[in-house]
Every structure is written in C-alpha cells, then in structure tokens.
Amino acid sequence: MRSIELAAVKPWYLWACALCILLASCGGGSGNGGSSPPPGSGTSSGSGGDTGSPGLTLLAGHVGGPGNVNGTGTAARFEGMAGVVLDAAGNVYVADKGDQTIRKVTPGGVVTTFAGVSGVAGATDGAIAKATFNQPMALAFDPSGNLIVVDAGNNTIRKISTQGVVTTLAGTAGTAGRTDDVGPAASFDFCRDTDLPPADPGIAVDKSGNAYVTDCETTIRRITPDGTVSTLVLNDEVTPNAPVLLINPGGLAMGPDDALYVSDGGFIRRVTLDGRVSVYGPGGRGAGIAVDANGTVYVAGGPFVTSTDATGHYQLIAAMPWGGSVDGPVAQAQFNRITGLALSPTGTIYLADAGNWSLRTLSNGVVSTLAGEALYNTAADGKGAQAGFGFPFGIAFGGDGALYVADSDAGAIRRVGLDGQVSTIAGAIGFVSAGPVDGTGAAASFAWPQALTAAPDGGLYVVDNLTGGIRHVSLSGSVTTLSYAYPYGGTPAGFDGIAVRPDGSLALTSQDLDFVMTMPGAGGAMTTLAGSGQSGGIDGNATTASFDVPTGIVADKSGNVYVSDEFGCTLRKVDTQGNVTTLAGSTGQCGFADGVGAQARFNSPRGMAIDAATGSLYIADTDNQVIRKVTQEGVVTTVVGRAGCQGFVTGALPGCISWPQAVAIDGHTLYFTTARGVAVARGVP
Q1: Which of 5-14, 366-375, 633-642 has the lowest mean pLDDT?
Q2: Beta strands of 50-155 (E only): which ranges?
Q3: How do beta strands 165-170 and 156-160 pair?
Q4: Residue 285: is its pLDDT beyond 80?
Q5: Cβ–Cβ < 8 Å for 237, 192
Q6: In terms of Cα–Cα distance, which of 580, 389, 413 is closest to 30?
Q7: Which entry of 187, 486, 535, 637 is 20 to 30 Å from 235 by CA?
Q8: In this structure, is the dihedral angle defined by the CA atoms of residues 509, 511, 512 and 513, taken in order, positive or negative?
Q9: How many CA atoms lie within 13 Å of 449's alpha carbon, on the beta-carbon side?
Q10: What does the pLDDT average to over 297-313?
C-alpha cells in the first residue's frame, strides 16, 4: 500500500466536535498484549496472581452516578429523578423516570422500589410489583392516601391505591391530545415525543381528591376521582373575564388556602380552583414547588432554590450559580439540576437533585445527601476514595506490577498501586491538548488518551484518540510520539484500541474507519491488517471483511488479535493473515444472553484482556453493565455484574457494576475501569 507522512492535527472545530461526542457516549477500548508481558498487563501470566479475598471491591476513585440499585444512603442509586412527594410518615417517594419506577426513601435513607419494574417501560396496570410505567414524572397523594402519578411517557394519569394496585385514572397510553372527557376517552400531552425540550409536568391534589396537572402548553387540567377530565378556564382575578394564558407552567402545588400555586415564566401565579389567576410574586421557573403553612412558596429548578412569602418578598436560598454536589451550609452548598421539591411539616425541604442522582435535604440552613451519590468528576491523586479520575478508560499493568490508567477526561496517565494509591506520571490533570506535546511528567500533554497497553520494555503504549497520536510512555513519565506513515493520506481520525503482538508490532483499531491496522513497535509504515473500510459484520479475508466500530483489541501468543466490534455487538478474531471470523455474538443483534457463538448477545463491548494460559477473553460489556468471559470455543458467560443492575454492590460476585470500560487480568483477578474509578474482582472463574 502507498504510504504518506502523517499530516497536521485536526482543526480545532473537529477536535471540539470529537470531544463532545466522546464525553457523551463514545466507547474506550483497551487492548493489552505483548511479548513477555508483565503479570496482568492484559495477558495473564498464569502465575496465580492476586490472592486477596474473593469478591468485588473498589480499588480507587469513586462509583457514584446513575443506577437502579436499592440500598441505604450512598449505596443506593437513582437513574433519572423527577418529582418527589412526602407521605404522612415522612417517607419520600421519587419518580425515577429513567428507571421507569417509583422509589421509596425512608427517613433513614433506605431506598426500595415502591412500584414498577426496573428498566421496563410500559402501561400495564395491576399489582405494584408487576405494573409498568413510562417516564413517571410528577407525584401527589390524595386525601385517602392513594398516590397519583403523571405517567408522562404514556400521556396518562395513574393511581396507586393504598392496597398496592395500579390503575389508569385518565388518558390512554400512546394517545396524545387535549381532549376533555372521562377515563380513557380523555387525553393529555406531556410533550414526551417532541423535538423541543419537554416541560416537566406538575401535579397537586385538593381536599376533595381532585387532581390538577400542568401539561406542556398553557393549561391546567382537572381530574376528578372518577377520572373526569376538564380544563380550567383561567381569567385574571383583578380584571374579570380577561383570559389568562400561562407562559410555560412547571411545578404545581396546593396551598393552605386551597388555591393552586404554579411556577410560570419566572413568576409564581396563584390560581383559585374556579380559575381566577393572580401574580403571587417573583420566582424562578422550576418543576419543584411547595407551599408551607404560612403561605411561603418554595421553588427549585436547576441549581437554585428560592422562596417567596405572602408579602411578595423573594429570597434566593441556594444561590451557587454552577452545578456541583457540595453538602454543608446552604450558602456554600451546590446542586446540579433539581427536578422535584417536597416540604415536610417541620420545614425540611427534600430535593430531587437529578443532575447528581441524589436525594438532598435542606434543614436549618444545612444541605445533606439522604440517598444516592453524585458522579464525582474531579481528578486528584490520593489513596482509595481520596483519589479521583476524570474518565478512566484504558487499563494495563506496567513492568513494575502496578496498574496504569489512561484518564481521558483528565488528559493524563495515572499510576494505581495495588494498595489503591493513585499518582499522575504523565500529563497535566485537566488539560486535554489539541496538539499533544512530548516531555516528562506534567510537561507532556495528551489529546484524550483512551487505550493503553504494556510495551515490551516495561513501559506503555498509549493512543491519543483525538489526533491519531501513538505515544510511548516510560514508567518515569517520559512521553515520546511514534512517527508513522498512514496509508490513506491525511490524518487518521483517531485510534481506539492498541495491542502488542509477539513480534513487537502494534495492532490498532479505528472506529471511524472500521479498520484494524498494524505497524512496527518503533514506528514506521502503517498497514491495514483487516477491514474493507465499509461498516458491517462480514467475515472473510483481509480486504473483504468488515467491522462496525471496532474498539477493544488484544493479541494472543500466536499473533492473532481479537477485536470487540462495539456497534456490531460481536467479538471478532483476526488471524496473522488478516482473515476475520466471528467468535461470539451475531452482527447487529445487540442485547444480553450467555451462550455459544452466535447465540450469545453483547451490548457495546469495549476493552478486554486475555488469559495467556487458557486464551479466554474477558470483555467489558459496557451497556449491559457486566464483564463477560469468552473461551476459545466461543462459550460466553457473565462473570462480574448482573445485566440490568446499574450501581456498585461490593462483596460476593457477581455483584453489580456501572459502565465498565476496559479490563486487565492477573490470574483469577480482574481490574477494570468504571466511569470514575478502578474496581477489582477477585476469584473470577
């Protein structure tokens, strides 16, 4: 093939676009292999490896963020928080629209699933453990203790009785509209199927059991206990018969004066039950709103919490103007994106901080986290939980027996000792460069370092995903860029996985071009090992075979490489001549299933490691939230995590994990990166 010299780096706008895409969802594979690798560098030495107690633990960093795990306090996880409401016993109910469930949180922070089936969207009525919801968003109790739910994705109003039975009170699932009628003949539109940002609906219930909801337009709808739906006719209270249109109604609450209070376009409006509207006072728009016994209205939205009393006095209670997750005195506390607010009789404010996946409280001027844990995103050196990562992707063992991590978002290579001590050996934390610089330690810079693997000299090879750079990093932190000639002209769009073959050559994956490439370990001419350049999942020879976003890559001791085809949801084998076969999975058939060969299913497989003794592969099956084992015969089993369980549950395997990215192996111990940490699973079969 023809070769030309590597061209200049991507223009700034391409770099920015690539970074945005990567931050949102792009996968990080780490291929680890090589000639005489150190134990655990991605190719097991078969020496027995780590001998700690079996089970799943966190080695360093944090494992907060979204999930669906029940538990106590920070052990619990929420997927997509919306409205909240309190019952008479002080329990908090959270509409977890991302998990399609209603979660219950006791005053002690114990989180359980109250209604719905985790992760299953639907419109099935029945017992609370079997009923299904579709983006439940707003909650309110009626005088009899029934929980009324705005099931926004279904455009319906649901009722959960005190006997634990779910029924549809009004509307028909799948039908959007604004028809006033009775039960299924009525219709609602909560703007779940619009290209515009959907409004967060509000709900309140009066003393007679009538429910009131805001939709995504300008109206308030009334639903009687028998399911009769009508639209309130809104008129100005000061000027009789002057129609009022709400601008952009959000949260809705019932006041002690039996009037509705709605946050609307930067104001709080008071609406009597016969439709007379007045401006109560200023107030930021928010989905969370509540009124205390004195008529003070609390509104929460974004990172702010405000109050407006009966005299119209407006106060910014939580005023930090940027997102964060800091507890403590309210003047210094930070919220991220508040979507729900509830007020207890004692004055404690409960806040659904959806941007932090946490239920927070504000009491006596102090903010605390009752349940859930924020996604810690500050990269810092330290030991165990004192350390932090930006977004750790690739992981491999270095020649000194320690783990090394490509911390993509931090723009650095981090060393993780087996005691959990984290240090930065190369790159300046927080600086991702469009034009990476060679150097030592903090003088070097990277452009989204994604995958890394052990080099034969005990150092590391690292790929800079945004520039196509291939770097060598010594364990003392000296960074040099390999020079290579790219066979297709211009600049490569970036590489995603890297492995060392027994002859010292490098094998790389390119998601953008759907190629598997190879080049000498010291740099030089790069050639295509396999791939037609057309997206697909065709097996065949080097020029006819196709890939669909090849990501992770490892090499065996014979020089064959194995590639995780992320969008194809398969595991492919490429022999030394470039012939490609599918070892497990079926192209385009994403899902979850253990089995043999084409019977197995993956969902976004990314980084992986190979056991040199058996040839078995261990793959981060990212969107299934598990790690899979694949034998040379194509037998697929799940060894860490449970499909559908997102969070971090330590102890006996399989446990529960979130967003595994890449894997390193040492005997029967797996080390893997998650969204913000490094975890270890010991005693893996």
Answers
A1: 5-14
A2: 55-61, 71-72, 81-86, 92-96, 101-105, 110-115, 126-127, 136-141, 147-151
A3: antiparallel
A4: no
A5: no
A6: 413
A7: 187
A8: positive
A9: 35
A10: 90
Contact 41, 664 (CB under 8 A): yes
Residue keyed to tokens 């609450």: 253
The pLDDT tens digits for 165-198 are 999 999 999 999 999 999 999 999 988 765 545 5
**3-state class (DSSP) for residue 192:** coil
509 exposed, middle or buried (CB, 10 Å; 0-12, 13-18, 19+)? buried
Residues 6+ apart with CB under 8 A from 447: 9, 15, 411, 432, 433, 434, 435, 436, 464, 465, 466, 467, 469
pTM: 0.84
Locate tokens 């968003």: which residue? 137
- Cβ neighbours of 539 (radius 10 Å): 15
**Cα distance between residue 110 and residue 90, in whole Å:** 12
Q: For residue 412, what pLDDT band results from cuts at 50, 70 and 90?
A: very high
Q: How far apart are CA 289 and CA 626, in angstroms?
A: 39
One-letter amino acid of 273? L
Rounded CA-CA distance 617/631 in Å is: 6
Are 585 and 601 in contact, with CB atoms under 8 Å apart?
yes
Q: Name, in order, each residue with C-beta under 8 angstroms of 538's C-beta and a sequence gap of 6 or more.
A: 532, 544, 545, 546
Distance CA 90, CA 342 (A): 11
631/583 Cα distance (integer angstroms): 9
Choose among 583, 644, 655: nearest CA to 617.
583
Q: Is the pLDDT of residue 326 over 70?
A: yes
Spatial separation of the C-alpha atoms in residues 565 and 633, rounded to whole Å:
18
* DSSP conformation letters of 609-628: EE-TTT--EEEEEGGGTEEE
Could you count the other beta carbons within 10 Å of the beta carbon of residue 191?
18
**Residue 579 CA, distance from chain mean position:** 36
**What is the phi/psi pair of residue 278, to 5°?**
-140, 160
Contacts of 256 (CB under 8 A, 6+ apart): 291, 292, 293, 294, 295
Phi, psi of 469 (to 5 degrees): -75, 140
Q: Where are the alpha helices (DSSP H) in 150-268?
A: none
Backbone angles phi, psi at 63, to 5 degrees: -135, 30
Instruction: Determine the residue type at 173.
Output: A
- Res 287: pLDDT: 80
User: Using CA atoms in the order 213, 216, 217, 220, what is the torsion angle rounded to 10 degrees?
Assistant: 0
What pLDDT does 25 receive? 32
Reference 659, options 627, 625, 629; nearest CA is 625
Give yes or no for a contact between 677 and 54, defined as CB atoms under 8 angstroms apart: no
Residue 469 near residue 480, CB atoms below 8 Å: no
Q: 311: which 2 tokens? A: 């005299």
Tokens of 383: 């030991």
Cα distance between residue 465 and residue 495, in whole Å: 5
N- to C-terminal Cα distance for the chain?
A: 44
Residue 490 has pLDDT above 80, yes or no: no
pLDDT at 39 exceeding the cut of 80: no
Average pLDDT, the chain: 89
Cis preceding linkage at 243, omega within 30: no
Cα(432)–Cα(446) distance, rounded to whole angstroms? 6
CB-based contacts of 89, cutoff 8 Å, min separation 6: none
Dist CA 268 CA 249 (whole Å): 10
Instruction: Provide the residue type at 177 as one letter.
Output: G
8 A C-beta contact, residue 406 and residue 110: no
pLDDT for the residue numbered 48: 42
Range with lowest mean pLDDT among 34-38, 112-116, 378-382, 443-447: 34-38
